[in-house]
Design a protein that fits this description.
Elements lengths: L2 E5 L6 H8 L7 E5 L10 H15 L2 E2 L3 H11 L1 H20 L4 H4 L2 H11 L1 H8 L4 E4 L2 E4 L14 H6 L2 H5 L7 E4 L4 H5 L8 E3 L2 E3 L9 E8 L2 E9 L10
Helix pairs in contact: 3-4, 4-6
Length: 242
């Protein structure tokens, strides 16, 4: 493919996801989803079903985010993970998969059993999501890499969770690293700038859509950024609650 089209953290904002995909040109672009399609926003199930369709139809690459991992950890040990998963936006995902009020109606174990019985294919799909994708001089990853060693040796947890050591570390990887996870208003330090964040061969693309910021869809070719589509989440007031 001549270009990559990469979409930032969606967090259940299905309508923004659909609108962003209107810019995707499958004939010439490889689609990459940077992870965190679920939690916090209202339509995680719809986002996952759409992602499954995009992977099947266009060989889209859907990278594992910390929120996909959170969900899988909850499914594997529901009683242990339930309180922290709910605290991090899991209630919305559970309700989108089951129904409103499900978290009050069922125990964590019952919730996991119901989800497992209804969404076997979706769970199998999520369990094999990759942690990174290389494309030419670019490295796409959800959170970042461990810059204290060869990037390929990064621990799986760091691919999903790393923040300051990656943001502030020296990028000697030879790669331009495109990532989500940490919202750009936080990277800018002003809690309001939703534009792409670029520093030392690192490009942050999570504009904080679910918090009332924006969703980025960025087109790259082998020489740089071709286009940055930024959709403001006009339906949600700015509320950096994380």
């Amino acid at each position: 493919m001549e270009q990559v089209f990469v979409i930032g953290d969606i967090h259940g904002e299905y309508d923004l996801f659909q609108t962003m995909l209107e810019n995707f040109q499958p004939e010439t672009q490889q689609l990459i989803l940077i992870g965190d399609l679920n939690d916090r926003g209202p339509k995680s199930k719809d986002c996952w079903l759409l992602a499954m369709e995009l992977v099947k139809k266009y060989q889209a690459i859907y990278l594992r985010g910390n929120h996909e991992q959170y969900f899988l950890e909850f499914m594997a040990a529901p009683e242990d993970w339930y309180p922290s998963y709910l605290h991090n936006g899991g209630k919305e995902t559970i309700e989108s998969l089951l129904h409103k009020g499900a978290t009050e109606e069922y125990s964590p174990t019952e919730i996991a059993m119901l989800i497992r019985s209804r969404y076997k294919e979706m769970l199998q799909f999520l369990e094999v999501l990759p942690f990174y994708c290389e494309w030419g001089k670019y490295l796409f990853v959800h959170a970042g890499v461990d810059l204290s060693k060869a990037w390929i040796e990064t621990a799986e947890s760091d691919f999903l969770w790393i923040r300051e050591p990656f943001h502030q570390g020296k990028n000697n990887t030879g790669k331009i690293i495109v990532f989500g996870h940490t919202i750009t208003p936080m990277l800018y330090g002003d809690m309001q700038t939703t534009a792409l964040w670029q520093s030392d061969g690192k490009i942050g693309i999570d504009g904080g859509a679910v918090f009332g910021g924006s969703l980025h869809g960025v087109v790259f070719n082998q020489t740089g950024i071709v286009e940055d589509y930024e959709l403001s989440n006009a339906d949600h007031p700015w509320q950096p609650d994380f």
